TrEMBL record:
It is found in: Cytoplasm. This is Glucose-6-phosphate isomerase. The keyword RNA-binding does not apply. GO terms for molecular function: glucose-6-phosphate isomerase activity. The gene is pgi. It is an enzyme of class 5 (isomerase). NCBIfam families: PRK14097.1 (NF010697). PROSITE patterns: P_GLUCOSE_ISOMERASE_1, P_GLUCOSE_ISOMERASE_2, P_GLUCOSE_ISOMERASE_3.
Length: 449
């Protein structure tokens, strides 16, 4: 087991019996998920995915990644939400911190995750003179942000390469049969990869959605799938006393019921920043509905100990804290003695930076417990493709169990439509006339007040 869960630092804030009382509900949730029942049961394809994924497509995907590496200096990954965050999380966590600046790598850039003209313009400037390929990813095929970015990049590429060669450089990841992007890909003859219909966006990182960009970045996707498969077997166990994934789900539920409103995901490695962003979408879209759910937030320590750390220590007691720790750092750096010791740091000489980081983490945990923040710990032996795959599956399953305990549908996200409807109405999209009139009346009233 290379990913473990430990909640001993939360025990002073809860009772053992609270866990015991939840075990039967956790068993029910397990059964529901493994028999593909319950709310949102059409989206449970991720459960067996690590042991049932399409191996032929997986091999074709690896060939496409190789082709992209050969044909291009840079890959532009166009997508948003679940069609973006998983790949971004993996590449940031597992590649060189300055991947795009390193010799001999295929650079990977992301677009379509915002509507900023400045971002797109600056990206186009960076790409000037480089050979590029595109992987456009959208399950629905109609999401505004990536569709807009795709338009811009297609035009840019057609000017640069002509229509024929552009076709050879566009890779589409979308639904198997439906949607605007599927239709376009069929018409244009783009190479395509499938987002399984029974896997929702935020559960899709281990499908071609995440795997193609991750493979282009030079990472070992075989090891990643092997890690996820190992997690599938480890956590296919309804007994909460031996299932760390389910313990995590249960502890979250206990603190949610006690009135905590925020879960802070804490990492001491900057490379985990986008793992936290991916995790926020996973839990935020799965649980944040019917006026329920812990708000998923994240901090990067020790950086943020010098900013938001004050609030965590002494502000309103809203939080539980879940730290992700990597036991063995991928790089060791020993601190040297300094003859003059002007900074007074010679007491650290001979220690590694990672030892200091770990003591900072321990000191923080103890301080936060004293400050009334229950602390949970997820530990990885090392950070590599295998453990990343395990961690993804750990969180996916914990989230499904946690949302089921909460009594919400873990796999829909109806609330995301609200901003889209307003945006379309304000932009005058056909079919949104009534909403537009209502919004204009409302805006007039506000400005008249
Ligand atoms: O892959 P798509 O269909 O473009 O969706 C992207 C993201 O947008 C959402 O549907 C929300 O609008 C997310 O759930 C999803 O991950």
């Amino acid at each position: 087991m290379s990913v473990t869960f430990d909640y001993k630092n939360a025990m002073s804030f809860m009772k053992k019996t609270e866990m015991e009382n939840l075990s039967q509900f956790v068993k029910q949730a397990h059964h529901q998920i493994h028999t593909h029942q319950g709310p949102g049961s059409d989206y449970l394809g991720w459960v067996e995915w690590p042991i049932q994924y399409d191996k032929d497509e997986f091999e074709r995907l690896k060939s496409a990644a190789k082709k992209i590496q050969e044909q291009s200096d840079a890959l532009i990954v166009i997508g948003i939400g679940g069609s973006y965050l998983g790949a971004k999380a993996a590449i940031e966590a597992l590649s060189h911190t300055f991947h795009n600046q390193m010799e001999g790598t295929t650079e990977v850039y992301f677009a379509g995750q915002n509507i900023s003209s400045t971002y797109i313009e600056h990206l186009l400037q960076v790409l000037e003179g480089k050979d590029i390929s595109i992987n456009v990813i959208s399950k629905s095929g109609t999401t505004t942000e990536p569709a807009l970015a795709f338009r811009i990049f297609r035009e840019f590429m057609e000017k640069k390469y002509g229509v024929e060669e552009t076709r050879n450089r566009i890779y589409v990841t979308t639904d198997k049969t439906e949607g605007a992007l599927r239709n376009l890909a069929t018409e244009e003859g783009f190479e395509t990869f499938v987002i399984p219909e029974n896997i929702g966006g935020r559960y899709s990182v281990l499908t071609p959605v995440g795997l193609l960009p991750i493979a282009v970045a030079g990472l070992d996707i075989d090891a990643m799938m092997a890690g996820a498969a190992s997690a599938y077997h480890q956590y296919n166990n309804p007994d909460m006393t031996t299932n760390g994934c389910y313990q995590y789900a249960a502890v979250r539920n206990i603190f949610n019921n006690k009135g905590k409103s925020i879960e802070l995901l804490v990492a001491y490695e900057p490379s985990l920043r986008y793992v936290a962003e991916w995790w926020k979408q996973l839990f935020g879209e799965s649980e944040g509905k019917d006026s329920k759910g812990l708000f998923p937030a994240s901090v990067n320590f020790t950086t943020d100990l010098h900013s938001i750390g004050q609030y965590v220590q002494e502000g309103r007691r809203l939080f539980i804290e879940t730290a992700i720790q990597i036991k063995k750092s991928s790089v060791e750096r020993t601190i040297q003695a300094d003859e003059n010791n002007m900074d007074g740091l010679n007491f650290l000489s001979g220690k590694t930076m990672d030892e200091v980081n770990k003591k900072a983490a321990l000191g923080t945990t103890l301080a936060h417990i004293d400050g009334g923040v229950p602390n949970l710990l997820i530990e990885l032996d090392e950070l590599n493709e295998y453990t990343f795959g395990e961690l993804v599956y750990f969180f996916e399953k914990a989230c499904a169990i946690s949302a089921t305990l909460l009594g919400v549908n873990p796999f829909d996200q109806p609330g995301v439509e609200a901003y889209k409807i307003n945006m379309f109405a304000l932009l005058g999209k056909e079919g949104f006339e009534e909403e537009r009139n209502q919004l204009e009346d409302r805006l007039e009233k506000i400005s008249g007040e």
